[in-house]
Amino acid sequence: MNAKLRQLLATAGVRDHVIKWSDVLVAHSLGAVPPPTNAEADAIRYRGFYLVLLDARGTPTHFCKCRPVTDNELAHETALLETLCHDPRLRTVVPETRGVRTTEMLMQISAYLPGPAYLREVGRQSDAVWAQSMREILTAAHLLAECATALVPSLAGDPAPLNLEQLGSGPLTDLGTVGFTAPRAEALQLAMRRAGPLGRRLQHGDLFPGNIIRWAGSWWLVDLARYGWCQVPMFDAYHFVRSCCALRQDGRGARTVEGWYQQLTGDGRVAATAQRTLAWVAGQAGLTAAQCIGALAYYSVDITARLIQRRAPPPTLAPFLADTERLADALRAGESVERVFFGIR
Amino acid sequence: MPRYATDLLEELVATVRRGSPWRDALHAATSRAGGPGDNGTDESCANWIWLAELAGREMAVVLNGGLGYLAAGLAPHFARVCYQDPSDRVAEFARLRFAQDRLRNISATRASVDELPYRGTSADCIALQEVPADFLMTDLARLSGHCFRILRSRGCLWFRWDNPHYYRRLFRADHRHGDHAPAARVASARRVTQMLLGIGYRAVRLYYASLSFGGSQNMVPAAQHAVVAFEDWEAMGAPSRRLRAFAARLGLWPYLYNSQFVLAYK
Predict the structure, then answer these.
(1) With 0-12 CB in 10 A as exposed, 13-18 as middle and 19+ as buried, what is A241?
(2) pTM of the model
(3) Which residues does chain B have within 8 Å of residue A247's beta carbon, measured at their own beta carbons?
C-alpha cells in the first residue's frame, strides 16, 4: 500500500500497527482516483474503488470507499454516518464510520459487516419469514429516519408539505423523452395532484435488498449516498417491496419475470405478502388511499426517470418503464389501484 | 489490449485531429470494429498505483501504452509521465488525447518496447501496459533487466499478464469477458517471481486481478488469507462455488482470475 493511503488510514486512526501489503484488497475499481481530468470525473458516476482491510488472520476488519474529492454523494453519506453511528439507537443499524480526505482522495472508512446481503436471502425465505423480515427492515428504516430527522435537522430542510405534482413534473418530462405518452403522463399527474399536500419523511432513496446486510441479529442499512434527498413518504417501501418481489419465486419455483403491477394483480402469496406489507407501512404513516396512490405515482415516475438520466441500457430501463405505463393505464381506466397494491377490497 | 486495424486507426486519428472529442471518436470506431475492444475501458486500470510503495514520484514510464488509459491514470500521481507505443498511429492518437485532456505532464513518443531511451536510475516507476504477444520468458527477463537499470532505488516495475482462457473455462469462470490469451506464454507466477528476484529486484508482490466474471476490476494479493477473504466477501456463489473452492485448495487460484500482475521493487 502506498504512503498516501497509509497516511489516510493512520489519520483515521484505523490501525496502530503497520498494514502489510497482503492485508489490503482493492475491489470494484470503476475509475481512476484522482480522475486525470474534470471531464473524466463527470463521465463515470461511480468513480473510485473499495478497499477491504484484513487483520493478520485474514478476517476483514474495515470497508473503505475511495473516491475523488469531488464526490458529493460520498461526502454527504460520510458526514451523515459520522453523526448517526454514535446514536445508541442506531448502533445496530448503521456501521461505525469515519471519513478522511486529502487533496486527491475522499475516503470513507466503515467497520466491516461480514453478514450476507439480504439480496442473497430474500429469494430463499419462506413466505412467513419474508413477511417478517420486510417489516423488520422497514422498521429499521423508520428508526433511521426518525434519528436522522432529530440529529441532522438540515436534512429535512424546508418544513412545508410536499407538492407531489410539482415534484413529479421534472421526472415526467424525462419520461417524455423515451416516448411516454401525454395521456399516461396526465393520469399520473392527476394521481399526484389528488394526494394533496403531503408531510415530509426522510427516505433512504435506494432501499433495495443489496443495501441491507444481516449481521449479529440485526438489519444494517448501507449506502446512504442519497439519504434524505427524497422525502416522499412510502418511496422506500415501494422500492423495497418491489425489489423483493422481483427476487421471489412463484408457487412453481420459477423466478417471477412479469412486471410488478402484473405480479400484484395475481392471487399468489407473493402478491398477498407484498400488499399486506405496503398496507402496514401506509397505516403506520397514517396516509390516506389517495396519498398512497399519489406517492406510488411519484415513485414510479421518479425511479424510471433516474434510469433515463443515467442512460441505463434498454434491458434495465424497460421493466420500470413498462410498470409505469401499466400504472398509468390502470389509473386512466379507473381500475382499483388500491386493491392491487394494498389488497383493499 | 487488442491492436486495431490500421485503417480504423487512421480514421480515428483523423477524426480526433479534426477536433472531435477523442472518447466519442474512439467509441464510434470501436463500435464499428465490433466491440469495446480495450482492456482498460477507463483510467481505473491505473489504480494499482495506490498499492505501490514508491520512494519518489518524479517520473513514470509507460511502455506499450496503447490508447493511453494507463498513462492518463498515472498522470496525477507523478510530476512527469513518459508514454511510448510501437505503433505510429496509436502513439499519435495518444498524443492527441493527452493534448485534448490538457495532460501536459505526459510526453508521448513512438518507440518499441525494447527501446528505452532513458538514462539509468531516472524513473520511479515503469509500467508495461501490455506484454507483447510474441514475448517469451527470456524476452520479459531481458526487458525487466533494462527496467532495473533505469529504475531508481526503491522504484517499481509493474506489469500484468493474462491467464489462459481455457483454465477459466475449465472452472466455468469465463462468463462475460473476452479471451485474452496472448501473454499466457509468459509462464507461471512462480517463474516470473524467480526471474525478477534473480535480476536483483528486492521484493516482488504478486496480485490476482479482474475477477473473470465479476465485471469489475479487483486486485487481490496472492496470499491465501487474502484470496479466501476476497472470495468470501464477493460471496461468489453458484454454480461453481464448490469447484472454485476445490481449485483454491489445489493452489489454482490464479486461473480463476483474468490476469495477474506484479509490483517488483528495486
Answers:
(1) buried
(2) 0.88
(3) none
